[in-house]
Each structure stands twice: as C-alpha cells, then as structure tokens.
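Regression test attached.
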Amino acid sequence: MDYVSVKEGETDLVVPSSFVPKKRDPVFYNPHMELSRDVGVAVARLTKPVTYCDALSGSGARGIRVAKEAGAKVTLIDLNPVAIELARKNAVENGVEVEAIHDNCNTVLSSRKFDFVDIDPFGPPVRYLDAAMSAVRSQGVLGVAATDTSALCGTYPGACQRKYDATPLRCDCFNEVGLRILLGYVARAALRFSYGMTPLFSHVTRHYMRLYARVDRAGGAVKESRKNVNYFVYRFSDLDRRFVTLNELAEGDFKGYNVAGPLWTGPYSDVDFTLRLADELAQPQYSKGKVASEIARLVSEEQGVAVPYFNLHKLCETKAASPPRMQFVFDELKRRGFLASRTHMEPLGIRTNAPVKEITGLIG
Amino acid sequence: MDYVSVKEGETDLVVPSSFVPKKRDPVFYNPHMELSRDVGVAVARLTKPVTYCDALSGSGARGIRVAKEAGAKVTLIDLNPVAIELARKNAVENGVEVEAIHDNCNTVLSSRKFDFVDIDPFGPPVRYLDAAMSAVRSQGVLGVAATDTSALCGTYPGACQRKYDATPLRCDCFNEVGLRILLGYVARAALRFSYGMTPLFSHVTRHYMRLYARVDRAGGAVKESRKNVNYFVYRFSDLDRRFVTLNELAEGDFKGYNVAGPLWTGPYSDVDFTLRLADELAQPQYSKGKVASEIARLVSEEQGVAVPYFNLHKLCETKAASPPRMQFVFDELKRRGFLASRTHMEPLGIRTNAPVKEITGLIG
C-alpha cells in the first residue's frame, strides 16, 4: 500500500494514498470526513475533555487532531493492527503522546472511563453504544456518527427496525426523521445506563449523520430525556404531521396516518452551544471551517421550531400546483405571526410552526 | 466469613454460611435460586452446549453444576475475586475443570464466543445483554434472569421505561406483562445483533423472571422475531385487553385504554421443548425437580392462548359480584368452544381466548 501526507487543521497525517476507501483497504482514512473531523475538533475545544477516546480510530485522524488541537489526553482503539501502527507513527510525527490500543473497542470501553467518547463507525453505531455508555463519565460528551443513512431514512425500513428498534418513514422530511431516530436510539441507550442525554450539536449530510450530546446522571436530565422520546404521525395525502406520545397515539384518531418512531422530539442541538461552535469553526485553522460554521449557524436558527420541516415541492405536489419562491413563503408565514426558517437538511425545506393548511394556502 | 457445604443436584458446593444475602457479603449464593438452577441445568442437558458461560457466576453454583451435570466446557466470570477463588475450589472439589475469570463480564463477553450464555444478575440484566449477544453463537442459547420484578410489573413505571425502554402496566396480569417486556427487550437486543429470538422456556416467580431462548441469524427467525414485538392495550373499567401493532394502535380508537409495551406478543415458551423439560426435571437428581416439572407442564398448556390471563377476582370486582368457583368458569368456557387453562403465574388466573364479555357473563 502507498501512503501520502495530508494536512487537516493543524495536524499532518500520513494516510493511505487510495483516497476512495475500498473494502480490502486495511487502513481507513476518508477525506470526505474532513468537515466532520473539523466539527469534532471544535466540539472538543469547546467542551475541554481531559480524557478523550476515539473508539474506532482507523489511522487516527480524528483522535490525533483532538490531541494536538484540543490538548486532550487521547486513547485510540482499532481492531486493525496496521491502522494502529500508522496511528502511532502519526502521533509521533505530530509530537503528541497518545495511547493506541489494538483491540475490540467494546472490550476496552467496558473497563475504562473517559470524559469524551467518539464512535465513528462505517455503518450503524448501535453495537458500540452500550459499551460507550458504560465508558463515558457523567457530564461527559458522546460523539456518534451513522453512515447507514438509507436505513435511518426509510429506504430499508426493516433494517432500521432491526438495528435502531424504530420505524423510519420515507416522507418529505425523511432525513430529519432519520436523525431523530438516531438521537432517540442514543437517548434510550443512555437511559439504560441511568443517563439523561442533551444534544449539543447534530447535523445531517448526504452520507452520514452526526450528533454530539452530553450525558448526565442527574435526575432532572434523565426525566427530560425520557419526555423527549416519542412518536411521529404523518399523512401522505396533505403532509399533515405531528409528534405524539404513546398515549396520544392510542387515544387519538390517526386513521390514514403513518407512524414513525420511537424518536427524539426535543431540540436536536443546543442553541447556545451551537452558536459558540459556529464562532469556533470560523477560525482560520479549520480547512472546512467556513462551510461548517454556516451549517452550525443555520442549525441554531432551526431549533425554534419543533416540527420536522416541510419540503416545498412535495407540498406543491399535493395541490398539483407550481411552486412559489421560497422567500415569498417565508415572508408570508412570518407576516401571519408564525416562525419560519430554512433548514440545513434540505434546500427546499421550510421549518415552521404553521399548520400545513396555512402553508398550502400560500400555494397555487 | 464462615462457609458451609450444601448439595444441589449432583454437585457439592461450599458457600457462605449467611444464607440470606447481605449487601456487604462478598460472595453471593442464594439458596432460593435452587429451583432456577435446577431448570438451568435441565435446559443445558437438553440443548447440549459444548461451551457454556456463566457470566455473573458468584461462587459458581450454576456453572459448576452445568459442568458436572450437563458435561459442558464452562467459563465462569465474576468481578469479585473472593467469589472466583471459591468457585475455583468448588470446581476442584467436584472434579470438573472450569475456566474461572476475575473480570468485568462485558469485557470478556465482547471478545469471546460461546454456545450458551447465562446472565443471572441481582437486578436488571439490560446492561449485560448487548455483550451477551455479541458472545452467543447463532443457534446458541441465552439464559436471562431479572430480579427487579417491581420495575417490570409496573410498581415503578419510570424505572421500567428507563431500563427496559418499555411501559409496564400494573393491571390484573401485571407479571405476564412484565415477563413479556423482558422477552421483548431481549428480542430487541438480539435484533441489534442480527439475531432472531425464539423462547424455549420462560417462567415467573414472586422474586424473579427467567427466560431461555435460542438466537438464530437465519432470515426467517429474524423476521418472526420482529413480528412478535408489539404493544398491549388494556381498559381498567371492564378489563378488556388485546395485543396491537404500532399501526393498529394509531389507526384504532383506544380512548379509555392504557398502553403497555413494546413487549413480546408471541408464545413465551416452546411447547415441545417445555414438555421435554418437564420430563427431564421429573428425574430424581433435581432437588426441586417435582415443583419445577409441574411448572413446566402448566407452562406448556398455557401456550395455546396468546392473550394475557384474566384474574378472576379482579373480573368480579368490575361487576361487584362474588367470585364463582374457578372450575365452573373453565368448564363453561370450554363448553362454549373457547380454550381455557390455568396459569403458573397466578392461582386465580384464567388464560382463555374468550372475549371479556363471555367471562363476565358467567359471573354474578
């Protein structure tokens, strides 16, 4: 295998030269994840963990950056001996000391404690989460990614039910439902370990979903977490939608609706933290900082409305009308006293607390 | 600490003399669990695992009996060094070779494979199940106990929601709902690891619930498992009840009903296996075999009806009537063409496929 040098943030990394990851490549480094790692480093700089575990480290890009750029005491774990060897070399090259362990991450996580645990798998994170929960300290931070977006977004509902113990929905806001299923899954795993979960920052891209959340053993946090895991009902004929509790689902009349969940129905990011994150990412050392900072700023605006976004074109299809300009819809909704914002999840998305009838009233 | 010798099945064990377990006792041996261990040994003799892991072994009573009486290659794990030392001595005394590991069981389970994994905790099993799933081979057997029956049965609904990610119900069949929540939880954990789960034998007592289930990676088993995790609706005014899917819950009108679940709605024991288990337990070497065999025989009869049992006295309370004789109710229901049996879960329990109106029609 050939290697090349790349620079990410303030860190120099030796990585396999075949940038497009192939199944048989023994060491995994994905250049498309640079934005994700920029965000991860920025989150670590803001949350200041003393100990940080990159539990599926590959050649160590994320963990070594956190050691160098956020000053944490970093542990890297990977089952691939070639990856761990390369990670050790990369650490030395960057003048940072890291602990690099060649083992199954669940074995290590089951017997250790960290302030920050990051789970960055290729595929779903579910099989690592219980071990991660046992390893993260109360008031610590958990970073979780999922790359099986097709399961979470409802292309393969059976796979989502099996892995995430939740029903997805291929609707106009499919990726928000997917992100909320992922958040809900993490919250439910946290509750097994007597932790409440509070999202700090979450975002979706075409290829992965990502969340950073604080876990806390305090009774208030646990209670709040439990309150935020519920269900989603959705009607395809007019795109009406709402979050409901299990009891509301039973008591209400939802004939003609589809059900998704259980999923997270609270804010998927903390506004205050996300604004600080946007400022941090605007610093010049982040290679993808400009884009990432813009995403964070938009995410902070989105938290005012709890209802999943509407896709303008899908709304127009229900009335067989041609779509108006986005700005017109935003202006009109605000003029009528509703909240309305764009969403980082979809260029045609409208996040609003207006009932669906109000929005379709503006169309055609 | 003082020790005494006891004989269980064909195995001689040295155990702490303070039989009533206290929190500060360093080695755990519970004489009230002898029936549970008789059943466990019988299940092992019928399923013939080559490798068996007693993952929370205490002083080794269960695992050493399985080594001696079922001939399996046994691994014992306990975090308590005194317990493991005693387990080693007990193995030598009984002339069996066992592997006794002093460690966190999740650490060991994450990196090993076994044909049979038994999780026998003091409290809930949930934090061990993901590790157990990663350790049990396809077509292997999982034994799982829970002693936090007050959470599963709905005395502490918040604790059940937190730990088992399910809503319990303090109704007339509270312990069946609890057992089905436990089974449902194990099935959902199995699905995370691409396993379907088929219960072999489950039973409830006042102090614990127990299940033995086969896990299988085959597509058919996975699909069947998913179909069997659903919800339970229950009306306190007339004790009407039924299992419903998530979609039925949304589409139906269940105003005035309470909802429990998700829970296992399939048979909670395999009739064929349970009858063989009853025969096995009737052998003279089992100290509690007679009682255990009777329970197994009753459990096998119960599997004909999928609806949770009715409590005759609670039914009578809804009509402010005095209760008829149990036998009269069974005879009348059968005469009208319904199935009806007793249940091992409750002396006043009636397991029947008759609608609640048919049963209350026989009262008062």
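Expected vs. actual: identical. The domain at 310-360 of chain A is CATH 3.30.56.70 (Phenylalanyl-tRNA Synthetase; Chain B, domain 1).
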